[in-house]
């Protein structure tokens, strides 16, 4: 249920930010363009960003659910999947939470700053995007997320009825591993776009599968 809720909220919030903030393309623009647009979202937009930052924490109960549902067939993989789900959830939360917090404060300071002060604020904005956004939130978070998918898929492949779903999960995780490098090379731009489309679908599918598997048995 946590995975399904995460997918629904992700689609809703992503759609809102895409329409109002030109997200995620806006992230490649300079502070002089992004910060005024961020503040222009108002209190409602800030609340949406806060909600967006909290959505990844749904991975924590999802990881527990994987452990409960699949420990009978792959105890080590299920335990590790739960650990990586927790790492992914908090890493992504840290990355996204910069927008309604420190970046928001930077946006307000930038609006009233003098021309001489703005380059320092822009440098801080860029540094936060690089560290909290690109590295912690996206790279570390998505690495842990795709390891969660991969280990969960491995455990599903060991069940009697879910081996095909497990194989599909392996494909999703491999796609995600490729999309992780979108900030490094444009060669994976297509994989990143496909991953944004596939991710919520896979969350729903995986959530339904786990909800229907309160206990599983090993494949013969």
When the domains are counted, the total is 1
Structural class estimated from helices and strands: mainly alpha
Q: What's the count of strands?
A: 0
Please state the average pLDDT score.
92
The oligomeric state of the chains shown is single chain
Give the C-alpha Rg.
19 Å
Main sheet overview? none
Tell me about this structure:
With 220 residues, the chain is mainly α. The protein has one domain (2-211). Helix content is 77%, strand content 0%. The protein has nine helices and no strands. The chain has helices at residues 2-21, 31-40, 42-54, 59-70, 75-97, 102-112, 118-157, 163-179, 189-211. Helix 3 runs antiparallel to helix 5 (75-97) and helix 5 (75-97) runs antiparallel to helix 7.
Concise synopsis of the structure shown:
The protein has 220 residues and is mostly helical.
Describe the structure using short key phrases.
mainly alpha, 9 helices, 220 residues, 0% strand, 77% helix
